[in-house]
Structure to design on (150 residues):
């Protein structure tokens, strides 16, 4: 059994699960904000889609990282079987970090969508917080890439 390849799959899978949860959280708030606009006979701002879709990028980070795991994980079976558990650990840790980043981003996006929908103001300010949540996923991906080269 190649634990390293399992780690590659887990980083992708966990990242995608986090994205799905984050999109679900933010998406509910976007729909609710649009509903409030329709009730008030105001136009529904399409910019709110940015809040709902922001957590999707973490799936890409997990995919990129999982893809980069494949070759070193496959070689580890031949060269050093003990490294497989290292790749498994990196996959689980980075997958969880990326997933929780997406969930936090969904929660921040939900608050941003609600506030923007209600006031029509502050979109850029709220999006900055969403971006800070994104940064956690980027750091996890980059640091995991560095770990793969050790």
């Amino acid at each position: 059994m190649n634990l390293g390849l399992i780690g590659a799959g887990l980083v992708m899978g966990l990242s995608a699960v986090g994205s799905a949860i984050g999109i679900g959280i933010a998406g509910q708030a976007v729909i609710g904000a649009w509903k409030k606009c329709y009730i008030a006979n105001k136009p529904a701002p399409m910019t709110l889609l940015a809040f709902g879709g922001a957590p999707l990028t973490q799936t890409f980070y997990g995919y990129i990282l999982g893809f980069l795991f494949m070759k070193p994980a496959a070689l580890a079976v031949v060269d050093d079987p003990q490294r497989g558990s290292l790749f498994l650990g990196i996959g689980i840790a980075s997958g969880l970090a990326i997933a929780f980043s997406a969930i936090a981003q969904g929660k921040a996006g939900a608050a941003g969508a609600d506030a923007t929908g209600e006031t029509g103001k502050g979109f850029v300010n709220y999006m900055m917080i969403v971006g800070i949540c994104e940064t956690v996923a980027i750091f996890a991906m980059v640091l995991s890439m560095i770990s793969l080269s050790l």
Observations:
- The helical segments are 3-39, 49-53, 57-79, 83-119, 123-148.
- The mean pLDDT is 93.
- The CA atoms of residues 65 and 145 lie 7 Å apart.
